[in-house]
Amino acid sequence: MSKDRHGGTKRHIRVDYVKEDMIKAFCFTAKESRVFRIDRIMAIQEVKRYA
Questions:
Q1: What radius of gyration, in Å, describes the C-alpha atoms of the chain?
Q2: Label partner for 20 (CA 20 to 30 A): which of 29, 34, 35, 36?
Q3: Looking at residue 34, what is its pLDDT?
Q4: What is the pLDDT of residues 1-51, one digit of tens each?
């Protein structure tokens, strides 16, 4: 979950890389690549996938 002007948004993402204070990831919620500021992330949860 991350902070935005509406209080917070829950997104499902796949992290592509982390650089300084930013995370570049594919957002499954928006169906496109996004950049997230680390200081605005409120919570994370790892999801394990089994093939």
A1: 11
A2: 29
A3: 95
A4: 556 666 678 888 999 999 999 999 999 989 999 999 999 888 888 888 776
| Cα–Cα dist 42/1, whole Å | 5
pTM higher than 0.85: no
Please report where in the chains the tokens 């650089």 appear, as a residue.
Answer: 19
Contact by Cβ (8 Å): 22, 37: yes
Written as one letter, the residue type at 31 is K
What is the spatial distance between Cα 17 and Cα 7, in angstroms, rounded to a whole number? 25
3-state SS of the chain is CECCCCCCECCCEEEEEEECCEEEEEECCCCEEEEEEHHHECCCCCCCCCC
